[in-house]
Write a structure and sequence with these properties.
By secondary structure, the chain is α+β, with helices and mostly antiparallel strands. The protein is 22% helix and 30% strand. It has one domain (21-259): Endonuclease/exonuclease/phosphatase (Deoxyribonuclease I, Chain A, 4-Layer Sandwich), CATH 3.60.10.10. The longest helix has 15 residues, at 164-178.
């Protein structure tokens, strides 16, 4: 972007432009993990309900209440392990944020309903459910449109596959879908680092930028990997981006504050 283009975008008084607070969080269905051995010793919690899960969800809701739009990964849409509670709805209700949607990508009967979710202070104009390519079904992306049909802000929430080859296919698909939009945020658990081949593919095939590389979010008890990300279009001015030290999952959440361009309005009801 040229300096002249930047001046056109940011020439308006900052006080007259809308701000947006975003959060991306893989909540591990509300499970606390404090050591790698817990993936084995606490594996039963992937199948059965427990009181700690509900306490964690309430704690997560207290964090969420400070934000405008929250993208959630590894939420349960209502099964045995969650006490048949839709966790996205529960967090939205506890946080007193009026809009929520979930995308269930892998259904294991009454045992588990693997989902992505969004909780929002603002009413989306559309929420599109995209199933991501891969040899094993069960990964998806939510494309959530805010503002106007003619000039939307598109927020994409996704949780990518564990295998590199599949992630490359998934991000190639995402890049194709985003080619028609000017204002975009992509956030979620991408299961790859900032300097990975997959991230380079996404950045090279879109106008997305990652404002700060190498923010470690995993594992939450000793963060050594940056696999959770928020990327934005150059039209969106990033004021803050940081990792929150909340250990209610095996991931730490990412927080971002944006200053929207003058031609983009996101109105609360």
């Amino acid at each position: 972007m040229t300096l002249a283009e930047q001046e056109d975008i940011y020439s308006a008084d900052d006080n007259d432009r809308e701000r947006l607070k975003l959060l991306s969080y893989n909540i591990q269905t509300g499970m606390t993990t404090n050591h790698y051995r817990h993936y084995l010793t606490r594996s039963w919690r992937q199948l059965l309900p427990n009181t700690e899960r509900m306490k964690n969800l309430s704690n997560i809701a207290r964090i969420v209440t400070e934000y405008d739009v929250v993208g959630l990964q590894e939420v349960d849409a209502g099964s045995l392990r969650s006490g048949f509670i839709n966790q996205t709805e529960y967090i939205a209700d506890k946080a007193q944020l009026p809009y929520w949607y979930h995308q269930t990508n892998r259904r294991l009967g009454k045992i588990a309903q693997h989902s992505n979710g969004i909780v929002s202070r603002f009413r989306p104009i559309t929420v599109d459910d995209h199933k991501l390519p891969g040899p094993i079904p069960g990964r998806g992306a939510m494309f959530v449109h805010f503002g106007t049909v003619q000039n939307p802000l598109v927020i994409v929430i996704l949780h990518l596959a564990l295998g590199r080859r599949t992630r490359l296919r998934q991000l190639s698909y995402i890049a194709d879908c985003l080619s028609i939009y000017k204002h975009v945020v992509v956030m979620g658990d991408l299961n790859c680092s900032s300097n990975s081949i997959e991230m380079k593919l996404l950045v090279n095939n879109t106008n997305l930028e990652e404002p700060n590389h190498g923010l470690n979010t995993f594992p939450s008890w000793k963060p050594e990997k940056n696999i959770d990300h928020i990327l934005v279009s150059p039209s969106l001015q990033v004021e803050k981006l940081h990792v929150l030290e909340h250990t209610f999952s095996d991931h730490l959440p990412l927080s971002m504050e944006l200053l929207l361009p003058p031609d983009l309005e996101i109105n609360a009801d």
